[in-house]
Design brief:
Elements (H helix, E strand, L loop, with lengths): L24 H15 L6 H8 L13 H17 L8 H17 L2 H7 L7 H17 L3 H26 L3 H13 L10 H13 L5 H18 L1
Length: about 230
């Protein structure tokens, strides 16, 4: 793609595409999400998107400057989906917990896109709204501004880091996923207590716990630490 984005008022296609779709930024982003889920990063090409939309590939230039611009829109769409339906309750820990789990779930629903987008900063509407919401929760809780920013940074990076890591695991072929999980039983559970006493004592717990994401517990640790810092003030 190139630097040929058309102003919003001039974008709407007068006629539907061959598949009966009227192009819009939202339609293109949703189609890109589907294609990324099916084909990974290679789906973000003008040719493939145009074919999926039943449109001339050059028409995508009217909405996005290039494929990176489209990727940022995809990243912002995931952020928007994470926020859908969320409302502040006034309980800052419950509110942050809900936001964190929503972020994680939204990215897990689209693991291929998560690996491409979790580390990006979009500056777009959904991300801006999320930043405002999280900082609002922290400032209303009584955190000084500098502390609120540090906790915001740790909170968001933790959520996105786990989202990307867990998405990478979900994106593995099923056989590879099963093989990775089997290691805890096939290898760790068989280590002798004489040489690995701590692993031997907890092998059954490891095999069970490693089947899920560590994020929910990590999130609780972060919230507890933030609460302790607030209480110390």
């Amino acid at each position: 793609m190139s630097e040929r984005v058309v102003p919003e008022s001039q974008r709407r296609r007068r006629r539907p595409t061959k598949q009966g779709t009227v192009l819009s930024e939202q339609v293109i982003v949703e189609t890109a999400l589907k294609l990324i889920g099916q084909h990974g990063a290679g789906a973000l090409s003008v040719r493939r998107l145009g074919a999926a939309l039943g449109a001339d590939p050059s028409s995508l230039y009217r909405y996005f400057r290039n494929t990176d611009d489209l990727l940022l829109a995809v990243a912002d769409e995931l952020i928007g989906r994470a926020q859908h339906g969320w409302q502040a309750t006034g309980d800052w820990q419950a509110d942050l917990r809900a936001i964190g789990l929503r972020i994680h779930a939204a990215y897990q629903a689209h693991p291929q896109a998560a690996m491409l987008a979790a580390h990006r900063t979009t500056g777009r509407e959904n991300e801006t709204r999320a930043v405002e919401a999280i900082l609002g929760v922290l400032r209303r809780a009584g955190f000084p501004d500098a502390e609120a920013v540090r906790i915001y940074h740790a909170f968001v990076d933790q959520a996105l880091a786990f989202a990307a890591q867990d998405a990478a695991a979900l994106a593995l072929p099923p056989a590879a996923q099963a093989a990775d999980l089997a290691v805890w039983q096939a290898s760790y559970a068989k280590l002798p207590a004489a040489t690995h006493p701590h692993i031997a004592a907890t092998a059954h717990l490891l095999a069970a716990d490693m089947r899920g994401s560590g994020y929910p517990f990590a999130l609780e640790l972060l919230l507890d630490a933030a609460a302790a810092r607030l209480g110390a003030r």
